[in-house]
Specification:
- The protein is an alpha+beta fold.
- It is built from 11 helices and 12 strands.
- It folds into 2 domains: about 100 residues, Orthogonal Bundle (Hypothetical Oxidoreductase Yiak, Chain: A, domain 1); about 190 residues, Malate/L-lactate/L-sulpholactate dehydrogenase, NADPH binding domain (Ribosomal Protein S8, Chain: A, domain 1).
- The strands form 3 sheets. It has a 7-stranded mixed beta sheet with strand order 2-3-4-11-5-6-7, with helices on both faces.
């Protein structure tokens, strides 16, 4: 494993995205989002995605210079068209609009279509929480990837269909919930494959419908499974109906390169002002008191403490900011090969 400082990874990622045609402001935003995912401990949504995104640009699936536009809006809602640009840019615009409208109206709903992959959903929950707003974020149908089987099924029909919640305290994120509705996120299968490590039992089926822990089986026609059986499956359908059906993402499912339909890509951000029902300070005190009570519960055998959702990410960020980010050799090699294919020299890569 090689260890890099966050600034080094950010600089390399930004240069690669500029080289593939992204405006500097877009390249900076996407690079920052990927490195922040690594810092938060979610390597599945970090710099391992650089080659994937560059390949998507080359195929015409990502339009690197696209700017999000607002298709329709009311005082408490908006629908954003990402124009098949980088998803992190579209998702940030949708989140900022939701925060702005929630502050003005107490509650807001913002949808986005033609998003592409938007990265780590928790980023947008944190983004809202830092602005003092509660947010619920869902993402359904990304890229038309038929990767997850419904409960009781053996063939893929759904995406990983993640969801996230961000809750502010007095001045920052007090609690963050962020997970895919599959047993493992697709990016974690990518990381396991790069590391040559097995997946946990119950995560995927091979192409014949048999349980397997070999990550390679997923890429040979296998499918993911929902977490928690029927419960994860039910949540996956909730996300699909909100992210894809409610937004009308199917109506925007053309191939930006001019070919056949290739994706149904939608997200929804629901935002709440903490002062909607009570004084904001009273809300913040209630959050802190509740979480303190949870932290005070004695740990069970095998545990050292009770943790709040989002606490592992905060600790990972503190540790990796100080000590650097470890990147597996296969990912380093893939990033360097991608950069070299764009004409970047060794000084621009991870050598």
């Amino acid at each position: 494993m090689s260890t890099f400082q966050p600034e080094r990874l950010h600089a390399v990622a930004e240069r690669i995205f500029v080289a593939v045609g992204a405006p500097e402001v877009v390249a900076r935003r996407v690079a920052g989002a990927l490195v922040d995912a690594n810092l938060a401990g979610h390597d599945s949504h970090g710099v391992i995605r650089i080659p994937q995104y560059v390949e998507a640009v080359r195929k015409g699936e990502i339009v690197p210079g696209a700017e999000p536009t607002v298709l329709k809006q009311t005082p408490g809602s908006a629908l954003v068209d990402g124009g098949w640009g980088f998803g992190q840019v579209t998702a940030e615009r949708a989140t900022r609009l939701a925060v702005e409208r929630a502050r003005a109206n107490g509650i807001a709903a913002v949808g986005a279509v033609r998003c592409n992959h938007i990265g780590r959903l928790g980023e947008y929950g944190e983004m809202a929480a830092r602005e003092g707003v509660i947010a619920f974020v869902t993402a359904g149908g990304f890229g038309g990837q038929v990767a997850a089987a419904p409960f009781g099924g053996r063939t893929g029909l759904l995406g990983t269909n993640p969801l996230a919640f961000g809750f502010p305290g007095h001045d920052d994120t007090a609690m963050l919930v962020d997970f895919a509705t599959t047993a493992v996120a697709a990016g974690k299968i990518r990381v396991a494959r790069a590391k040559g490590e097995p997946l946990p039992p119950g995560a995927i089926l091979d192409r014949d419908g048999n349980p397997t822990t070999n990550a390679e089986d997923f890429y040979q026609g296998g499918v993911m499974l929902p977490f928690g059986g029927h419960k994860g499956y039910a949540l996956s359908l909730v996300v699909e109906l909100l992210g894809r059906v409610l937004t009308g993402a199917d109506d925007f499912a053309e191939d930006p390169g001019g070919g056949a339909v290739y994706g149904h890509s939608g997200m929804v951000v629901l935002a709440l002002d903490p002062g909607l029902f009570r004084d904001r300070d009273a809300y913040a005190r209630g959050v802190e008191e509740t979480l303190a009570q949870v932290k005070a519960v004695p740990p069970a055998p095998g545990f050292s403490e009770v943790m709040i959702p989002g606490e592992p990410e905060a600790r990972a960020r503190e540790r990796r900011t100080r000590d650097g980010i470890e990147v597996e050799p296969a990912t380093v090699e893939a990033i360097c090969a991608t950069g070299a294919s764009l004409g970047l020299g060794e000084e621009d890569l991870l050598h």
